[in-house]
Amino acid sequence: MQRLNAVSAAVYLLDEDHVELRVAMIGGSPPSFFTLPGRMGLDAPYASTRALASGKPAVLVDPDPADPDQQHVPPYPYVALSVPVTDADRRFGALTVLRLETRGTYRAAERTDLQEIGNELATALAGLAESGAAIAAGPTPLLVLVGSDADTSICTPGWGVSGVPGSAGHQPDVSAATAR
């Protein structure tokens, strides 16, 4: 995660019927990992499903575009990058990372780095599958908290909830408002 300036990462695995992706493991820190969906149909417009379907890295800036009758959409302060987790014979799922949108989009080298990690994961999962292990997400994802050196601050103007940790971007500058 640190190499990609990511605040969260998730491993999604296909369910038993191969009709949806389910989160098996999430690493990172709140509030970012709470924004990752627990499951998604393969036709959902997420980076994870697009990466699995295309066999290539996929980027998503806003996971929930506004409906035509919706006037306001809460901003999403993360950019997602997903890569397929596949080998020559099997599709296992996708590996997804989130970074703060203030860090910019993912460069080609970062996409390649994540794909290499996804390929290593696919090799490990293929070995487990060949030994007879079932490759599926459990009933709840494994949560792995990041070390204290990760930048988890969110300072995106207009985003957040006052008083909620990690929502600092919402905090207005009260001193400037009262000085008028």
Rounded to an integer in angstroms, the radius of gyration calculated over CA atoms is 18 Å
Mean pLDDT over the residues: 81
Terminus-to-terminus distance: 43 Å
The poorly predicted ranges are 158-180
Please indicate the percent range of residues in DSSP E strands (runs of 2 or more).
25-35%
Question: How are helices and strands ordered from N to C?
Answer: EEEHEEEHEH
Total strands: the figure is 7
Shape label: globular
The helicity comes to 10-25%
Largest sheet: 7 strands, mixed
Helix and strand content put the structural class at alpha+beta
So how many helices?
A: 3
Account of the 3D structure:
The protein has helices spanning 47-54, 108-130, 174-178, and strands at residues 8-14, 20-28, 39-41, 58-60, 78-86, 91-100, 142-145. It has 180 residues and is α+β, with helices and mostly antiparallel strands. The model is unreliable at 158-180 (pLDDT under 50).
Give me some keywords for this one.
180 residues, single chain, alpha+beta
In short:
The protein is α+β, with helices and mostly antiparallel strands and 180 residues long. The chain contains three helices and seven strands.
Spell out the blueprint of helices and strands.
Layout: E1 8-14, E2 20-28, E3 39-41, H1 47-54, E4 58-60, E5 78-86, E6 91-100, H2 108-130, E7 142-145, H3 174-178
Parallel strand pairs: 2-7
Antiparallel strand pairs: 1-2, 1-6, 2-3, 4-5, 5-6
